[in-house]
Design brief:
alpha/beta, 7-stranded parallel β-sheet
Length: 303
């Protein structure tokens, strides 16, 4: 079983305005509301790939109800801890430029964190847990490190999609998969990375530090996967980028969901790249048909 963890879910409220005028009344050209949060995105794409998962995390209030209801309507299983306060709303404002205004989210008490830990006891050896997104400031800043160590000690495959110190601290505990983009990779080592060739030595360093598989995305310029024995370099399909939100999460879903079914790392990487691109070319998270349509465009070179 695959479990996804979203510590601070949201409603992503996407608003399009023809020509935004500050200090004036603006009328929306178009709007959409989607359940947000990186782990939730992974669960939604997994479902579209016919892979079951259970979404874990914290939700509250009428916004939390919206998140749960949409997941239920999409037949995505969830087992959230209910908290006081409302789950946040993140505004994605599209006009001449794209502007994001992200909410804070509810405070999470120690009692609610204990309830979350209790739910983790259902997870068994050999299962997969995706830890994705930022850690709210009301939770321990080393929570992902704690959970990755717990996974290492209990034979559970941990996938971490985070950045900065949070990501660097988990590496020594042998996560199954981590996925920095090239900007995040550069930040980890205080360098600027602009090409796949520059990224490979730093990806290998993360493997030497403990990560089992390192995926590095370069948006429209490709992606690489570094394992303990090989380097895989991929192009990305061509298309019009409509939506940058959730592309990385879709890559994670495609990779993990396919690996669980096939146990083939190269096939998993190929589907992951196609999934990320398919979401980038879609209004919301991708559908399965779009992934299948792009798969033939993905070419992998093994180094």
């Amino acid at each position: 079983m695959i479990y996804t963890v979203t510590l601070n879910p949201s409603i992503d409220y996407i608003v399009e305005v023809e020509d935004l005028g500050l200090g004036k009344i603006n009328r929306m050209k178009r709007e959409n509301k989607f359940p947000g949060g990186k782990g939730i995105n992974v669960s939604r794409v997994l479902k579209r790939l016919d892979v079951e998962s259970i979404a874990l995390g914290f939700v509250g209030g009428f916004t939390g109800d919206f998140i749960k209801n949409v997941l239920e309507n999409e037949s995505v299983t969830s087992d959230f801890v209910q908290v006081e306060g409302d789950s946040r709303i993140n505004i994605k404002l599209k006009s001449q430029l794209e502007t994001e205004i992200n909410g804070q989210g509810p405070a999470i008490s120690e009692e609610k964190l204990d309830q979350f830990f209790y739910k983790l006891k259902q997870i068994k050896k050999g299962d997969y847990v995706v830890l994705a997104g930022n850690i709210p400031n009301t939770l321990p800043s080393d929570l992902y490190e704690q959970l990755t160590l717990w996974g290492q000690e209990n034979g559970i495959h941990i996938i971490v999609d985070a950045s900065g110190k949070v990501l660097l601290d988990v590496v020594k505990h042998r996560p199954f998969f981590i996925k920095p983009n090239h900007h995040e990779l550069g930040d980890l080592f205080d360098v600027k990375i602009t090409s796949i060739e520059q990224a490979i030595p730093y990806g290998k360093k993360l493997v030497e530090m403990g990560a089992q598989n390192v995926g590095i995305s370069f948006a429209g310029d490709g992606a690489i996967l570094i394992t303990e024995s090989s380097v895989y370099i991929s192009n990305v399909p061509k298309g019009e980028v409509i939506n940058s939100v959730g592309a990385g999460d879709s890559l994670v879903a495609g990779f993990v969901g396919t690996y669980v079914k096939t146990n083939n790392i190269e096939t998993a990487f190929k589907v992951g790249v196609a999934s990320g691109s398919a979401t980038a070319f879609s209004e919301d998270l991708t559908k399965r048909e779009k992934i299948e349509e792009l798969l033939n465009q993905v070419k992998i070179e093994k180094d």
